[in-house]
UniProtKB/TrEMBL annotation:
Region of interest: Disordered: 228-248
Pfam families in the record: MlaD
KW Transmembrane helix (keyword) present: yes
Transmembrane found in the keyword field: yes
Mce/MlaD domain mapped to chain residues: 42-118
Highest rank taxon of the organism: Bacteria
Name this polypeptide is given: MlaD family protein
InterPro entries: Mce/MlaD, MlaD_Phospholipid_Transporter
Keywords, ordered alphabetically: Membrane, Transmembrane, Transmembrane helix
Organism: Flavobacterium ardleyense
PANTHER family xref list: INTERMEMBRANE PHOSPHOLIPID TRANSPORT SYSTEM BINDING PROTEIN MLAD (PTHR33371:SF4), INTERMEMBRANE PHOSPHOLIPID TRANSPORT SYSTEM BINDING PROTEIN MLAD-RELATED (PTHR33371)
């Protein structure tokens, strides 16, 4: 009987000991999550819309948890104040022009408060300081934008389909041009006439160069062209000599 009581007490003591370890472990994890065992400072920011942010959500900087959201307060109909506590040893990385934004852990995860990196040449934040913010993008706004884009794409697709049908049926100028053989032949004839006219113009210009009355004019133009080319060559040679003398 005495041995039974002794075993019972040992088992009870072991169970209580394990329970206490589990209890202190939970307290340690919660305290570590809420920064209860480390020195911390308070920062404040404001949003027009808190976008589902809750007290206790994580505060991150460069992808690392550095604090938690401590308080969310509605100041007026267009301003929501958010207070956060961050580890004191991380404040040196947060600059006065750093800004807070509301993000999510994954697509449907909890909301988190993200602090951006500021300019390295500016001062670090102090306890109780207010920092700027980026307004969160609402999922409903994204859906509305996608809907408008899809509707526009559908409208453009319908118009293109209608245009292609009209072209295939020979409607409109482009449709007649593609489907009407006579119009295509007329277009070919027009292009051939333009080619012949251009050829005839070149022949006339060549004949004009040999004409007694116009020969002097064309020779004068050629001499002026040759003179300009020679002057440009002399200028280039002069610049090359100047660069060569400077390099020496």
């Amino acid at each position: 009987m005495e041995n039974t009581n002794t075993n019972y007490k040992k088992k009870l003591g072991l169970f209580v000991f394990i329970g206490l370890l589990f209890f202190f472990g939970i307290i340690f994890l919660i305290g570590r999550q809420q920064n209860l065992f480390s020195s911390e400072i308070k920062l404040t920011t404001t949003f027009k819309n808190a976008s589902g942010l809750k007290v206790g959500n994580a505060v991150r900087f460069s992808g690392i948890n550095i604090g938690t959201v401590k308080e969310i307060e509605i100041i007026n109909d267009s301003t929501v104040k958010v207070d956060m506590s961050i580890k004191d040893d991380t404040k040196k990385f947060i600059k006065t022009n750093s800004k807070a934004s509301i993000s999510s852990e994954g697509v449907i995860g909890d909301k988190i408060l993200v602090i951006s990196q500021g300019s390295s040449n500016l001062k670090s934040v102090k306890d109780g300081q207010k920092i700027g913010s980026f307004e969160p993008v609402e999922f409903s706004d994204v859906l509305a934008s996608v809907k408008v884009t899809a509707e526009n794409a559908e409208l453009i697709t319908d118009e293109l389909a209608t245009l292609l049908i009209e072209i295939n049926e020979g409607e409109g100028t482009l449709g007649r041009l593609i489907n009407d053989e006579s119009m295509a032949n007329n277009l070919d004839a027009t292009m051939e006439n333009l080619r012949k006219s251009s050829k005839g113009l070149n022949e006339n210009m060549e004949a004009a160069k040999h004409n007694f009355l116009l020969r002097g004019y064309f020779k004068k133009k050629e001499k002026a062209k040759e003179k300009a080319a020679k002057e440009a060559q002399k200028l280039a040679e002069k610049e090359a000599e100047e660069k060569k003398s400077k390099s020496k």
